[in-house]
Write a structure and sequence with these properties.
The structure is a single chain. By secondary structure, this protein is α/β, with parallel strands linked by helices. Helix content is 34%, strand content 19%. It is built from 14 helices and 17 strands. Helix 10 links the parallel strand 8 and strand 9. Helix 2 crosses helix 6 and helix 7 crosses helix 14. The longest helix is centred in the middle third of the chain and has 16 residues. It is globular.
Length: 371
């Protein structure tokens, strides 16, 4: 039997497929990711023996029993293939904790769920796209690696590149401890005009207030109707209605009507088969009379398009930029490269705020805004 554990960090599609067809397969994590991986495996002729879960023992998923990790290790530890199938926003636990829980229980063959996506041609899932797609991007990756202004960012970038190739969570360093979007190296200004793309329910406005209580203005874009109503309610409840301009639009590279998957959750996004039509706008059109000092984007993979639609504004105002780079595999290097093109005199930084690659942000900071 192939030892997957000995190969961790060295993904090989043929070895993964062969191992999964030779042994009982157990998925550790019975939530959404687990169900998706089970469906993909079944479509490729592989039946899952059991799900493992720390909380849902005794339930079933698609007729497959959920057992505890200890029972799974006792029955299948030396002969089964264990796949960690959970990926969620967290600052403790995560993929590494799941992997080490299985190893500590004596499970010999453990692999992360992205290996299944890669081996069987499953759909890309945020930053989890096939590592083979990185090969044509090597020059871009190398160029982006040279742009960052501190060793922490450079080291973090290299770790995240390899993380996308291996899905080995033990590669990633410690998380940043300051509030997301408001790092320790960034100084506020009195006339702060904050542009919030992907404003959600207003969850960035509270840390903005704590970081810069006297900010002058915010323009908040949120396309999901349910979430937009909550954003408006939050601004009223927080006494910010006179300083925060809420706009129910998606931000993109061009004006028009786009399909949108309106989930009411933070994962709501532009999507070709979305259930709703929304108006898409460009920042260049929306901010023609505005001088932004700070632009933040967390828009579920639409960041590059939105930056293209903000070229004039960015070059005109040279704002602080805080752009998420974890929604697509290549965002990690393409977004820093574009930010450097638009603002070549600004300093670039990279920070991560949640485990397993989530909430990783690239900052472009004018040097007069550095502490």
């Amino acid at each position: 039997m192939l030892s997957i554990q000995n190969a961790l960090g060295n993904y090989h599609a043929d070895a993964v497929r062969r191992a999964l067809r030779q042994a009982p397969v157990l998925l550790f994590g019975a939530g959404t990711v687990g169900a998706q991986i089970q469906t993909l495996l079944r479509a490729n002729g592989i039946e899952v023996t059991a799900f493992l879960d720390n909380h849902r023992v005794g339930e079933t998923v698609d007729g497959i029993p959920i057992i505890g990790p200890a029972e799974g290790a006792l029955r299948f530890g030396s002969r089964g293939v264990f796949v960690t199938t959970s990926w969620r926003p967290a600052t403790i636990g995560g993929m590494s904790a799941m992997r080490h829980q299985l190893l500590d229980l004596g499970c010999e063959n453990v692999m992360p769920f992205p290996w299944i996506l890669w081996a069987f041609g499953g759909p890309s899932h945020y930053l989890w796209d096939n590592p083979a797609k990185m090969e044509p991007e090597r020059n871009a990756i190398a160029a982006a690696a040279e742009l960052f202004d501190d060793n922490l960012s450079r080291d973090l970038f290299r770790c995240h590149v390899v993380f996308r190739e291996t899905a080995d969570p033990d590669l990633l360093p410690a998380l940043a401890t300051h509030p997301q979007y408001f790092p320790e190296f960034l100084a506020p200004v009195e006339n702060e005009c904050f542009i919030d793309c992907g404003a959600y329910t207003g969850d960035t406005l509270q840390p903005l207030l704590e970081w810069n209580p006297q900010f002058a203005r915010a323009v908040s874009f949120e396309a999901d109707p349910v979430t937009f109503s909550k954003l408006q309610q939050y601004t009223r409840d927080a006494g910010l209605a006179d300083r925060v301009d809420c706009r129910p639009f998606a931000v993109s590279a061009r004006e028009g009507i786009l399909r949108f998957a309106a989930t009411g959750a933070s994962s709501a996004a532009l999507q070709a088969d979305g259930d709703l039509e929304v108006r898409a706008v460009t920042l260049d059109s929306q901010l023609s009379g505005v001088h932004p000092t700070f632009i933040k984007m967390d828009i579920e993979g639409a960041e590059l398009d939105a930056l293209e639609g903000a070229r004039e504004t960015i070059r005109r105002s040279a704002p602080v930029m805080a752009i998420c780079v974890y929604h697509r595999q290549s965002d990690l290097w393409r977004i820093p490269l574009l930010l450097h093109e638009l603002l070549p005199d600004s300093a670039l930084f990279l920070r991560s705020y949640l485990l397993d690659g989530l909430d990783t942000v690239c900052y472009s900071v004018p040097r007069n805004r550095l502490r």
